[in-house]
């Protein structure tokens, strides 16, 4: 199986071009677990498939390194955008990508060599209703500035869906030990029947946010694009920041804008190709 390794600010996945690679009958969750293993596989936060679509120009499927399938992935979208343009699957600078969280529209910016350097993606409108997250409770109610308790500690949390679930915690200071301790417990908290991504954010000023993430199905990662969008939305909604925000992630910065005119969230950031190869490990079939 041919693959390419790309990362968005250190959020790295194994990418497979399903226009040329036939994965019919393959146990995709198990394949994701095998290729993601950093000791016995290629290594990565998961597996992303670039596929044909009947609804858009391309389709993206995202499997975390535990085999679970994600509805969306902002860093993955930027890398898919770089791959399809740089590898000649499209010559358009704007195109559409189908995800389980909806159809996204990336716009690529090129470097002097004609390769994709930055990608801006219309991530659509954020959702706040408990049913959309999903969360327990009254379906149409919103979980804004709620108090969530874990191991006797209380956190102020806002829940946002960017096509996938996010629990944003507002912190006076973001500490790595808190991410490791509370991230997995909130991911599996009873409020979230499908689990959740957990963002720990510290407001630096009206235009900057310090950000760390515990990703559902992957654990600590260096970046999360949908998480950065959700964190910015939560901060803007509560009046803590302006509508254009730089989010400082462990792997680098993303620029997020939540437009008042159409309620859409736009994410801009880099994508990097690292290497390509052939996976010669066993392919699991159903």
From TrEMBL:
Record-level GO cellular component terms: cytosol
Subcellular location: Cytoplasm
UniProt catalytic activity: (2S,6S)-2,6-diaminopimelate = meso-2,6-diaminopimelate
Site (Could be important to modulate the pK values of the two catalytic cysteine residues): 166, 215
UniProt-annotated catalytic positions: 73, 73 (proton donor), 224 (proton acceptor)
Residues bound to substrate: 11, 64, 74-75, 164, 197, 215-216, 225-226
Single GO molecular function: diaminopimelate epimerase activity
EC number, as in UniProt: 5.1.1.7
Pathway assigned to this chain's UniProt record: Amino-acid biosynthesis; L-lysine biosynthesis via DAP pathway; DL-2,6-diaminopimelate from LL-2,6-diaminopimelate: step 1/1
Highest taxon listed in the record's lineage: Bacteria
Keyword annotations: Amino-acid biosynthesis, Cytoplasm, Isomerase, Lysine biosynthesis
One Pfam family, short name: DAP_epimerase
Its biological purpose: Catalyzes the stereoinversion of LL-2,6-diaminopimelate (L,L-DAP) to meso-diaminopimelate (meso-DAP), a precursor of L-lysine and an essential component of the bacterial peptidoglycan.
Similarity remark: Belongs to the diaminopimelate epimerase family.
Assembly and oligomerization: Homodimer.
HAMAP family in the record: DAP_epimerase
UniProt-recorded name of the protein: Diaminopimelate epimerase
């Amino acid at each position: 199986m041919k693959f390419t390794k790309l990362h968005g600010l250190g959020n790295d996945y194994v990418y497979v071009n399903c226009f040329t690679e036939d994965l019919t009958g393959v146990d995709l969750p198990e394949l994701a677990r095998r290729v993601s293993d950093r000791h016995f596989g290629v290594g990565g936060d998961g597996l992303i498939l670039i596929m044909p679509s009947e609804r858009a120009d391309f389709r993206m499927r995202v499997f975390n390194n535990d085999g679970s399938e994600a509805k969306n992935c902002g860093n993955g979208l930027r890398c898919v955008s770089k791959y399809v343009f740089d590898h000649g699957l499209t010559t358009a600078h704007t195109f559409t990508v189908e995800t389980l969280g909806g159809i996204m529209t990336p716009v690529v910016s090129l470097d002097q060599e004609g390769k994709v350097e930055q990608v801006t993606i219309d991530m659509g409108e954020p959702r706040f209703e408990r049913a959309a997250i999903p969360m327990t409770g009254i379906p149409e109610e919103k979980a804004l500035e709620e108090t969530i308790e874990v191991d006797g500690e209380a956190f102020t949390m806002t829940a946002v869906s960017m096509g996938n679930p996010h629990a944003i915690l507002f912190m006076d200071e973001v500490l790595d030990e808190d991410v490791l301790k509370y991230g997995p417990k909130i991911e599996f908290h009873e409020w979230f029947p499908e689990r959740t991504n957990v963002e720990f954010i510290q407001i630096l000023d009206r235009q900057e946010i310090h950000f760390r993430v515990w990703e559902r199905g992957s654990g600590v990662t260096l970046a999360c694009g949908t998480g950065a969008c959700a964190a910015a939305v939560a901060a803007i909604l509560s009046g803590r920041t302006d509508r254009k925000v730089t989010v400082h992630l462990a792997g680098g910065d993303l620029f997020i804008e939540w437009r008042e005119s159409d309620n859409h969230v736009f994410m801009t950031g880099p994508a990097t190709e690292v290497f390509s190869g052939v996976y010669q490990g066993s392919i699991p079939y159903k």
